Amino acid sequence: MARVVVVGAGLGGLAAAARLAAGGHRVTVLEQGPEVGGKLGWVSRDGHAFDTGPSLVTLPQVFRDLFDATGDPLDDVLQLERLDPAVAYRFADGTRLAVPGTLDGVREVLGPEWSAFLDRAAEIWRVTEQPFLRSPLRGARTLARLARSSADVRTVAPWASLRKLGAQYLTDPHLRMLLDRYATYSGSDPRLAPAALATVPWVEQAYGSWYVRGGLHRLPLAVADRARERGADVRTSSPVAEVLVEGGRVCGVGLADGGRLAADVVVCNADAAALYGSLLPPGAPVRRARASLAAATPSSSGFVLLLALSGRTPDLAHHTVLFPADYDAEFDGLFTDPRPLPDPTVYVSAPDDPATRPDADSESWFVLVNAPRHGPVDWDAPGLADSYADDVLAVLARRGLDVRDRVRWREVRTPADLERATGSVGGSIYGTSSNGASAAFLRPANASPLRGLYLVGGSSHPGGGLPLVTLSAEIVAGLVGPA
């Protein structure tokens, strides 16, 4: 039995805690905030309630595997509802496109070009799922597994960007824009992100988009409960100040209140840049990991509005995306010349769930626009957050969703707020981006160079998004092994 300390109670940390506790280890989870969940937060006020992180669950089998491995099945604990349509898109030229919630429906509505692209994406998924997404990142050995055959290499096309791959199949500008959006799932630029990200729309459309009844925040709460059932001690309001190192391996953590907690294994669910930048001592033997992080491009962040609205919006989907006329200008403003985007893509999540509203004649909208990190843009500059919130509402109005006279109240959250709430450096949602052919191999590995130290969560391998974060916990549990 190992003494395990998990730093951070985001979904990845909680999933690792549940698996390791089920494997017989003595597990303590330390969360800096007052609640578990990390970026899967929940805000409630005057009967309006909001998930403040992801709005969809994809690849539900990953979560079923987690619950099956640690106790009662997922469906005994949470109610997952398949969304149909999965997403409703609105384009600047007035075109509207509702993407069905089933693969057959997607192929029918999006047509033969998209179907041909999905066939290629399915092949990329076949080649990469096991050797990459479900296995530890081991540098050249990982590349060797991916390159077992020249046919597989041609399928994955590691030299091509997501946009370049899409151009081989898609002539419709709306479909090209729709594909570009999937790069933002990892906070990346489709002009630079690898073609392998074609697996993201494949997974979403082949396995469905799902909602957790009562809000997605119930997912980390359920995983925390499962960890406790297996014997883990989950402590909130317990910030960690440092990871302790002795004799070339971890030996515990130092707490912000001055206390210490000994450990044989430390699993870090904090942002990898924070771990390597400030939680480890300067002389820790992690020079190469720090260099890889320094060479990677940080992911983008997000600017959020929580809108408590009176009245109902006719024919509003659970998830609506409103595109700008010039999508490339958005990516330039995120990565090339960082600035608040004047004409951003706007994402609206508006679940039709009584748990999110005070009465039948009201709505609670989570509104997100991509935004550059805090640092390149000073999101704490006086007046910037409120003035940009007004700008986003004006963009919504120009695109046909004018709710300015229906707002009961609003709450604004900037990348700087995200950094303070989660410890994510600059408010980068996914740690490092997928920009560049080597980006996946610059992402921190689950097994650090320091003995006994492991990483889970969206800033480590295999990446961001709820399924990948949960897979990172499965990988780490396998690396640590049973008691």
From TrEMBL:
UniProt keyword annotation of DNA damage present: no
GO biological process terms held by the UniProt record: carotenoid biosynthetic process
Pfam families: Amino_oxidase
Coiled coil location: none
MF annotations from Gene Ontology: oxidoreductase activity
Limits of the Amine oxidase domain: 11-477
Family: Belongs to the carotenoid/retinoid oxidoreductase family.
Protein name (Swiss-Prot/TrEMBL): Phytoene desaturase
Species name: Klenkia taihuensis
